[in-house]
Amino acid sequence: MGNPEIVQDGEIIDLRQGIREGALDSMEILGEFLEQFGRPSEPSQEAQDAAFDFGANIGQCMLFGITIEDYEVMLEPGPRTVTAVARLAREEARGMTSELGKLCQIIRDSDDLVVGMSIESWRVSLEYILNSRLLLWGIEAYIEEALIETYSEDPDLEDLVGREHIKPYFQDLMDRINELDDEIFGNRFLIASILESQLKTEFDKWRALLSKTSSAPDVMPWILSGGLENVLIRIRKMRRVTEEEVPH
Question: Phi/psi zone of residue 78: left (φ > 0), alpha (ψ -120 to 50 degrees), beta?
């Protein structure tokens, strides 16, 4: 599971403040484009990107129990906005799955010289993909909350229509996220061996934030559960055994 205590309380406060400020900024930016989501025509790419950033930032606030003033107002920008977030997140998950598969194949096909020259760029790419997976977790939390908002005791027609509009996109998103998780798990030994010492840094920040959250989610992405760190322990044990067996 890692050790969230390596992230000091002062740093956790700064991380929470940074997430909160990012959410407020994304709320303001989305507000400039919100009118586009009420039109029959497709919102601009800039507007959709603003919705994606909003979903990712608000989702992190939900995961880490960070309160945002006026959040309730922004939580109901309409089903077309939430759907845009789901569609973009789906494409993000699909793209990360494809990129990870191609990258891991390149690594496997490379000789020792290429590995030595390319390992740092590979680490950057892997860290980006894994961080994208965590951001998708935030978006997942945002869309789930948006769906819950439509389940009132006496839902009106708008709630019912909005719910049915969002649900298929959300299910498709979850399918794509599961595919990304499968790709990560299938390449876990390669990912752990490439990242090595950099493996824990980003994950421990998320774990530290979750450790200070009274209502932390019961289920989290596999990469936050210590899975990759456990794989790295196995890799290092196998290396030691191999080294001991080689005659000196």
Answer: left
69-95 pLDDT, tens per residue?
A: 765 555 455 677 888 899 999 999 999
Q: How far is 26 from 52, CA to CA, in rounded Å?
A: 9
- Average pLDDT score over residue span 19-24: 91
User: Shortest CA distance to 146 belongs to which of 50, 23, 45, 58?
Assistant: 58
Residues 144/94/20/223 CA torsion (nearest 10 deg):
90
Is 90 within 8 Å of 172 (Cβ atoms)? Answer: yes
- Provide the token pair at 106: 């390149």
CA distance 59 to 149: 14
Q: pLDDT of 40-71, one tens digit each? A: 788 899 998 998 999 999 999 989 988 877 65
The count of domains in the chain is 1
Q: List the structure tokens of 131.
A: 């961080």
Q: pTM (2 decimals)?
A: 0.83
Give the structural domain span for 41: 4-245
Cβ neighbors of 178 (< 8 A, separation 6 or more) are none
Residue 187 has, within 13 A of its CA and on its CB side, a CA count of: 24
User: Tokens representing 191?
Assistant: 């990912």
User: How is residue 68 written in tokens?
Assistant: 């945002």
